[in-house]
Every structure is written in structure tokens, then in C-alpha cells.
Design brief:
Layout: E1 2-3, E2 6-7, E3 10-12, E4 17-19, E5 35-40, E6 46-50, E7 54-56, E8 59-61, E9 64-67, E10 72-74, E11 87-92, E12 98-102, E13 114-116, E14 121-123, E15 137-142, E16 148-152, E17 164-166, E18 171-173, E19 187-193, E20 199-204, E21 212-217, E22 222-229, E23 233-238, E24 244-248, E25 260-262, E26 279-282, E27 289-294, E28 302-307, E29 312-317, E30 322-326, E31 333-339, E32 344-351
Antiparallel strand pairs: 1-2, 3-4, 5-6, 6-9, 7-8, 9-10, 11-12, 12-13, 13-14, 15-16, 16-17, 17-18, 19-20, 20-21, 21-22, 23-24, 24-25, 26-27, 27-30, 28-29, 28-31, 31-32
Length: 352
């Protein structure tokens, strides 16, 4: 989204959306083109990668921008990234280091992961352990142990896409040559890790049934997560309860896009689901999200979530068929969801 010809970052404070700084001018991320990626560090600083270059003496260079709560600035200042093409993905690790990947290349013409350690930008693995990606990097992610994972359209010696892992010393392939990458072509658009250390991927690749799917590596082998999709995925989020949410081009039976959610646990507390009310809630108990499957409820029907004292703690409107509601900010306890002003029977759920 744009304002006066410039892209900008917005923040949701719980009730309204507001710009972070300005869209243009000195206190802006200087984004004349799309903002591709955002991340935050352990200190709460916000970082943005976008497609706008700076002309420095006839040479176009791309940088990463930082919002410290007051102003936007180039990460590194005069010693910024100064990449020869744009960054499409950024992430921060547990120690506050910043990593960037994208279309930019090193002196050998290979895409790489750049690291900002608070003082300088360096190529991760430079000096004999380079990634040497032969094509675009779409995604980079850090796990809780400090390992860095990246993927995109780059391929191995067999011409297959793969996930690369940096363990602090060298780059390795996640899996083996007889594993995921030899069965698939296309591109990995998103790579994440969960609390159990599994590597989760989504993107533009297919299984043997010609379906797009989410893949998982459990430190031994690759496998498919849940059912396949009829189109590719673009973005993915893994919650603290290892719930996987995926969005993309795939559509449901009504020809509409939807947000797919893979639960990390079996649905419990079935007695709290009233199927006669026209909707069902799961998982129950829940941690970060609840999913509502509606049967006889029209789109844009209002809902409210109340605590045991009757205080409204969240509200909104429902879409068609399946809705996912973020409850991560709620305190642990018992809640009731009412739909259409109480005309539909309330249902109880537990927030862990």
C-alpha cells in the first residue's frame, strides 16, 4: 500500500492502524517501492527491507532500514548494506543480529545471506564457507539455538531446490540428496522453525499427487504436513504452540482464498462444542488461536468474546465457513463467545 507514491509501515495497537513514522520525508523508510519484509530484534527495534534503491554517484544501492521507536534510519549508516539489488527477506536471531537475503549478489555473482552484528555487515560464510546461491533467496529464519535457515529458488548440483542451514561454522543442506529437494522443483517462499526444532517450509512446489503442500523436516526426513493445496503458498506463521498458519493462492469449494491452519494437537473438550448452534470452535483448550467453523451463519455476522465476569475482551465479524481468531493476548482462563448479539447459543472455550 502506498501514500503519495511511497510505501509505508503500519502498526496495529489493538484498536486502530497507524503509520510508523511517515511515508515520505526524512522520518520514513524511504520506500518508493514495495516493502518486502519486516522483523524485530530482542530490543524491540523494527527493521524493513524494500525495493527502493539510493543513487550514490550513479551507482544504485539497496539498504535495510531501522525504526527505533522515534526515527527511521539506514542500518549501518554510511557503512550500510549497500547491496547491488534488493533484499526480499530479513530476520533477527536471539542475540539481536540481523540477517538479510534476496536478489543481491557477491563479487562472484552469487546470492548470499548478509549479517549485521551491530557494527558491520558481512557475508555469512565468507572465506571458504559461502552459501553461493545460484538464484533468488526468498526466506531466511533463525531458530532458538541460533542456527540460520534459508531457501528460495536456488538449487543444488542436481538442479533441485533445497533448504540451507548455517550452524555458525558452515552451510549444509537440510536433508539428503534422496530427501525433499530431489522430488521437487519450483521455489520455497517461506521457511520457519518450531519450538521442537522442526523445519517448516511452504511455497511453489508439489508432491507426487500434483498438490502444493507444507513440508516438515524433523531432523531425520522430510514429510508432508496435512492435506495438499490446489495452489501455492506465499506466507506462513508458526505459533508458540507449533500451530502452522499458511496463506496463498489456494481456494476453497466456493472459489475463495482462505487461511489454512494445521493444529499441533488433537481437538479436546468436545463437550464444549455445540454443533446445534450452527458453529464449532477448536482447538479447545486453545493457546494462540481458535478456529470457528460456521454452518448456518451469514458472513459479516458480529461476534464477541467475554470473560467469566461478562466483560467483552474481543470482538469482530465472521467471514464465510472458517474463521481464525487470534487470542494470544488474552489471559489464561475460561471465555465465552457469542455470535449475532446472543441470538446464537454461546460456546465456552478455555485459553491456556
Amino acid at each position: 500500500f502506498m501514500d503519495s507514491g511511497a510505501a509505508y509501515v503500519v502498526k496495529w495497537d489493538g484498536s486502530t492502524w497507524a503509520k510508523v513514522g511517515y511515508a515520505k520525508g526524512p522520518n520514513s523508510p524511504n520506500a518508493a517501492n514495495a516493502i518486502y519484509s519486516l522483523c524485530t530484534d530482542t530490543a524491540g527495534n523494527l527493521y524493513a527491507a524494500h525495493g527502493n534503491a539510493i543513487n550514490r554517484g550513479g551507482k544504485y544501492e539497496w539498504d535495510i532500514y531501522k525504526w527505533d521507536g522515534k526515527v527511521w534510519s539506514i542500518v549501518g549508516g554510511t557503512t550500510g548494506l549497500k547491496a547491488n539489488k534488493e533484499a526480499t527477506t530479513i530476520t533477527c536471531d536471539r542475540d539481536g543480529n540481523l540477517y538479510a537475503g534476496g536478489r543481491f549478489t557477491n563479487d562472484s555473482g552469487k546470492c548470499y545471506i548478509a549479517k549485521w552484528d551491530g557494527t558491520k555487515w558481512t557475508e555469512l560464510g565468507k572465506g571458504g564457507n559461502e552459501l553461493n546461491a545460484n538464484s533468488l533467496i526468498w526466506s531466511v529464519n533463525a531458530d532458538k539455538k541460533g542456527n540460520i535457515y534459508t531457501a528460495g529458488t536456488f538449487t543444488n548440483s542436481f538442479g533441485k531446490i533445497y533448504v540451507a542451514k548455517w550452524n555458525g561454522t558452515k552451510w549444509t543442506t537440510v536433508g539428503t540428496d534422496s530427501s525433499f529437494e530431489n522430488k521437487n522443483k519450483g521455489q520455497i517462499i517461506s521457511v520457519k522453525t518450531d519450538d521442537a526444532g522442526n523445519v517448516i517450509i511452504a511455497g511453489y512446489y508439489k508432491n507426487n499427487k500434483n498438490e502444493f503442500y507444507v513440508g516438515k523436516y524433523n531432523d531425520t526426513s522430510w514429510s508432508q504436513v496435512g492435506k495438499g493445496f490446489n495452489a501455492n503458498a506465499y506466507t506462513m506463521y508458526v505459533s508458540s504452540k507449533n500451530e502452522i498458519l499458511v496463506g496463498g493462492n489456494f481456494i476453497d469449494s466456493t472459489n475463495k482464498n482462505f487461511l489454512a491452519m494445521q493444529l499441533s494437537q488433537v481437538v479436546t473438550a468436545i463437550e464444549n462444542i455445540n454443533t446445534h448452534a450452527g458453529y464449532a470452535i477448536y482447538p479447545n483448550p486453545a493457546h494462540d488461536f481458535i478456529s470457528i467453523n460456521t454452518k448456518d451463519i451469514a458472513p459479516n455476522t458480529p461476534y464477541q468474546i467475554m470473560d467469566v465476569m461478562g466483560k467483552i475482551v474481543a470482538k469482530g465479524t465472521l467471514g464465510a465457513t472458517t474463521n481464525i481468531i487470534d487470542i494470544a493476548a488474552l489471559n489464561s482462563g475460561v471465555y465465552f463467545i457469542t455470535i449475532n448479539g446472543g441470538l446464537v447459543q454461546p460456546v465456552k472455550f478455555i485459553k491456556e
